[in-house]
C-alpha cells in the first residue's frame, strides 16, 4: 500500500501549538483508518537541526534534513508549514529549509502554510504570483516584504489553481485544509470524519462544496468571490436570484463568472448541490425530502433523479453505503 507522508516543518520561533495541531489531525486520521491501513498515513517533524527552540522556549525534537552525506527525509505528499511568532518574521526566516522546500514542491508535494507559516513559503520563493492569506495582524508586513504575492486579508484560506499551494488564515481553516488533502487521498467520508473528530463539531467552515471547488477561488475578482460564497451557503439559488444579489445582469454575471473561475455558474451550482447533497446524506440528520428542500429541489423525486445522474446510485443507497463505511 502506498504510504501518504506528511512532513511538518519546524524552525526557530515556530508556535509549538500550530505544529502539534497538524500532528494531532494526522494522528486522528491514523486512528480512524482500518488497522491494516493505518501505516499508510505517516507524519514526522522535520527541521534543519535535530532540536528547534519554539516561540515558547520549548525545545522540539525533529528529524534532520541531512544525515551524514545523504538526505534523511523522503519525498512527502504534504508539507505543512506551521505558524511562527511575529518576532521571528524576517527575511531568511527559514533559509536552511528553503532548498528542501523547493525540491519537495518540484517533486509534487502539496505545500500548506498555517497563518504566518506563509512567510516561510514566500521566503522560499514559492508564492510568487500566487494568492495567499496570513494572520490579519501581519498582512501589511507581508505585502511590503513579498509584493509579488497577492495577500488576501479577508480570505480564510487560499488555494492555487493546481491545488499545490495552500494557505490558512487561522487554526480552523488550517484543519480544514489538512482534511481537504486527506479526503482527496482517502475519500470524502474519511475527510469529513477526521474534521468532525478534530473539532468536535460540524464547523460551518467545513463544507464539501467549498473544498471540492476550492481551486476555482484562485482569482482576484472580489465580486465573483462574493457570489461564490453566496452560492456555497445558499445552493438553492438560481442564476436570476444570484444575479440580483450581485447587482449584475445574468448575461454579465455568466461571462464574468466563467472568466474568473473557468466554469459556468450552472456548473458551479451543479457541483455544489452534488457535494452538499452527499454531505447532508452522510450527516444523517435530515430526511431525503428535507435534503432536497435544502438544495432548492421541488421534491424528493426531483432530487433523487438528479443525485442518481451524479453518482449512479439513489440517495438512500448512498446514505446506506456511507453508514457502512463509517461504522
Defining traits:
alpha/beta; Rossmann fold; Arc Repressor Mutant, subunit A; seven-stranded mixed sheet; two-stranded antiparallel ribbon; 13 strands; globular
Task: Characterize the structure shown.
The protein is α/β, with parallel strands linked by helices and 327 residues long. It has 2 domains: 203 residues, Class I glutamine amidotransferase (GATase) domain (Rossmann fold, 3-Layer(aba) Sandwich), CATH 3.40.50; 105 residues, Arc Repressor Mutant, subunit A. Helix content is 47%, strand content 14%. The protein has 14 helices and 13 strands. The strands form 4 sheets. The protein has a 7-stranded mixed β-sheet, with helices on both faces. The chain has a two-stranded antiparallel sheet with strand order 3-4. Strand 6 and strand 7 form a beta hairpin. Helix 5 packs antiparallel against helix 6. The longest helix has 19 residues. The protein is globular. The two termini are 22 Å apart.
Stretches with pLDDT under 50, minimum 5 residues = 203-209
CATH level 3 topology of the largest domain: Rossmann fold
Q: Architecture of the largest domain, CATH level 2?
A: 3-Layer(aba) Sandwich
CATH superfamily of the largest domain: Class I glutamine amidotransferase (GATase) domain
Strand content: 5-15%
Number of domains in the coordinates? 2
Total DSSP E strands: 13
**Element string (H = helix, E = strand):** EHEEEEEEEHEHEHEEEHHHHHHHHHH
The main pleated sheet reads as: 7 strands, mixed
- The residue-averaged pLDDT reads 87
Backbone shape: globular
Number of helices: 14
Radius of gyration: 21 Å
| First-last Cα distance | 22 Å
**The CATH class of the largest domain:** Alpha Beta
Binned, the helix content reads 40-55%
